[in-house]
């Protein structure tokens, strides 16, 4: 078939796609009216996941799972904005990996607020200046982000979803010849994680590695100096239109960060596979066996604990601790609700949400 004919057919399909998308959005608008009237949350991650799963099972064409997900996450984001414009606060700066995680989930239609600290993200959601907040909670190479746990302990915000994201670095530069590059800018940690790539490309000592505060800053500098490059997130390079020469240059493919989406209300709908997060402040926690007997109740109810972190309670003179616990199951599951009820004085439920990792 001639190119012209192929393009005519593509145009016809695009016309149909547009019409179908608009039909979809009319229905979404009705859903929005229902939700406003009945005070139901706009963001329903379990419903989105169910749609993706259904489409994945149905699919027998050229699109792979990631492509379907990317297209539909963008459609959901547009839908949510039609229902109610969303404003997302995240730990900045722009172009950070948290920004990338937020955009992956909330799409390009939402309004984004880059903030300078995890505390500011909590405050902004708490005071209704944003609908949701996105913060990192742990990295599989470097452990938990204590600051996030500490603010979860001190705030009324809830966890509405988790976003696991593989951390990939890109090599971006204006230079057309690799051998012209004399300086590479990035965060310290990024140099460490891309050491093999840099050594392979430049050998030892042929290029100066200059650490800066954020990978977005690295991009800004590399944009000014065509004899330099930045090691950065994909989103940062794209934002400043700095050409990416190599993608996924990190030494280890296992580098994953988990982010949390924070909201003001707990998600009540269950999905096929949920997890929950609770905070536990044991009364008389110094009594021997207190923690063990508390955990035993979970074990007896057949609840699988997947994480337990302890943080200083920061109250009183003693060494008291708050436990941050993740387990499989939803707070509405009978076997879970019984244990939560038994320990209701000691437990604060932070949320039940779809388990993605
Ligand atoms: O089903 C809903 O509750 C909707 O609001 C519709 C829709 C969608 O576009 O399919 C949009 C947002 C929700 O997060 C889930 C699904």
UniProtKB/TrEMBL annotation:
Coiled coil: 3-30
Gene Ontology terms, MF aspect: prephenate dehydratase activity
Pfam families linked: CM_2 (PF01817), PDT (PF00800)
Domain of life, source organism: Bacteria
Signal peptide: none
Subcellular location per the Swiss-Prot or TrEMBL entry: Cytoplasm
InterPro entries: ACT-like_dom_sf, ACT_dom, Chor_mutase/pphenate_deHydtase, Chorismate_II_sf, CM_dom_sf, CM_II_prokaryot, G/b/e-P-prot_chorismate_mutase, Preph_deHydtase
Ranges for domain Chorismate mutase: 1-87
Pathway: Metabolic intermediate biosynthesis; prephenate biosynthesis; prephenate from chorismate: step 1/1; Amino-acid biosynthesis; L-phenylalanine biosynthesis; phenylpyruvate from prephenate: step 1/1
Keywords: Amino-acid biosynthesis, Aromatic amino acid biosynthesis, Coiled coil, Cytoplasm, Isomerase, Lyase, Multifunctional enzyme, Phenylalanine biosynthesis
Catalytic activity: prephenate + H(+) = 3-phenylpyruvate + CO2 + H2O; chorismate = prephenate
Domain Prephenate dehydratase residues, every copy: 87-264
Domain ACT: 279-357
PROSITE patterns: ACT, CHORISMATE_MUT_2, PREPHENATE_DEHYDR_1, PREPHENATE_DEHYDR_2, PREPHENATE_DEHYDR_3
Enzyme Commission number: 4.2.1.51, 5.4.99.5
NCBIfam families in alphabetical order: CM_P2, PRK11898.1
Function: Catalyzes the Claisen rearrangement of chorismate to prephenate and the decarboxylation/dehydration of prephenate to phenylpyruvate.
Listed name of the protein: Bifunctional chorismate mutase/prephenate dehydratase
Record gene name: pheA
